Every structure is written in C-alpha cells, then in structure tokens.
Amino acid sequence: MKVIRQEELGQDNSQQFNMMPLVEVTQLPSGFIAYPEGVKISYRPYVFGEIKKFNQSNMSKLNAYEMALQGVVVEGMAKDDITFADMLYIALLRKISSLGDTSFSVSYRCGLCGKTNTVSVEHKKVSFVDMEVKKLPIEVTLSNDKLITFGLFTFGNYKTLVKENRLHDDLYAMALTAKNMDAKQAYETMYNAPVADEAIIDYVDKLQYHNIAPMEFTCKEEGCGHKTKVRLTGGDILIGPFRESDEYVKSRVRFGI
Ligand SMILES: [Zn+2]
Predict the structure, then answer these.
(1) Ligand 1: distance of its center to the CA of 234 in Å?
(2) Tell me: the pLDDT tens digits for 16-51?
(3) 103 to each of 2, 116, 124, 215, how far by Cα in Å?
C-alpha cells in the first residue's frame, strides 16, 4: 500500500481539483480484476472545506461515500463501477494522505473486558484479503440448468440498494452484480432455485468477497490481553474521520468481526 504524505506532494501537476495533486492508486482489494484494462484511478487528499463539511453535517453514509469519491478521478470507466470495497480502501488512502501522516488511529472495544483501546496503525500494515477468484465473471450453473454470471459488488450497486431501500437484502445485492441478465431476473432465478443450490450461491458470495484484511489487536487493559479482530472497513471509520474536531485523527471501528 503506497501512501504519499501531503507534505511530500508537489504542486506541479495541480490543474485539477483545488490545486491538489493527484496520486495514482496502484493496489486495490479487488486487484483491478473487475475493471477494463488500462483503467486509472487517482485521488487527492481532502481539502479543508471538505473536512469542514464532514464536521458540520450529519450526512448519510451514502453522502459521505459520495464525498469521499468526489476526490477520486477514474479514467476508463464510470466511477460507479468501482467496487464497494475498493471505494472504502481509496477513502482510507484519502484520509491518511490528508492527515499528513503514515499511520492512522483505530478505536475499538475489547471483545472480553469491553475497554476501549486506541491503537495507531502504520499504513504499511494494512493488507488485503486474498481473493479466491482470479478472473471475472464468475459463472454459475444452477441445478435447473440456468446460467448466471457475476461480477463484483460495486458502488453503483450500493447506490441502487439505498435508493430502493433494500440495504439488508443480501440476495438482491448479489443479483445486482449479475452480468448476463438484469437484477430482477437474477433475483428471481436465485430466489426460485432449488434449496440444494444454496451452497452454490453462498460460494459465489465467498468468491466475490474482497476487502482490507481484518487486524488483530491486543487489549492494553492490565490483566486482560485479549486479542480482538477488528474490521477496518466497518461502520464509519473510513469515511467519517472528521466529524468531531477532537476525533480528528481517530476513527471508530465496529467491534469484533
Ligand atoms: Zn480487554
């Protein structure tokens, strides 16, 4: 993971976006496998006005994600085609580069004693879950001989879930990633699949999974020392880093995994 600190950034190629230079992203949780060849993704650090906006408004997650993506330039495909997990990771890069540091703080609650721990994470320690699938689309033939092909869950898919108020409908979320039919058709095909196909559909879900790897932290409370696995992309951590001034460099993480 490559992060350029704000003070290391020159002002030379700064025609776009508020005079802030763009940094190209070279590694992503998806490994770029979901994108056409030659796609280029770059980001710039947050500017002061954006941080102020994060602080002032009680914005929805979708708006916060959209704001995180405002500082991202995608060449060669639509921005909505960025996978959701890649978007969260790029948001983390933006956050770190904006803080002018190479590490960021994570607060979590110990899974045993409940104490809130704050740890500083060096950006180099952030790694990705190894994707099981190396090539897309994922092709699945259900036992009724119906073939469905799948891509990865994108930011555009997420927007659709929000718009249609179906954020918790996992099957529909997967249907939105279908490539050889529309989401409605894919949903009905999977919904009406024989029960025996459930394992296949679960397996597709596993294949599609790509993300920042969870990290394990040891509780600092005396006599505890419990190890808690923390998912760095949970909750608001990556996109809402600036809501309270005293929390400026801190972020909150969903506890456990
Ligand atoms: Zn503890």
Answers:
(1) 20
(2) 445 678 899 999 999 999 999 999 999 998 887 887
(3) 12, 19, 8, 14
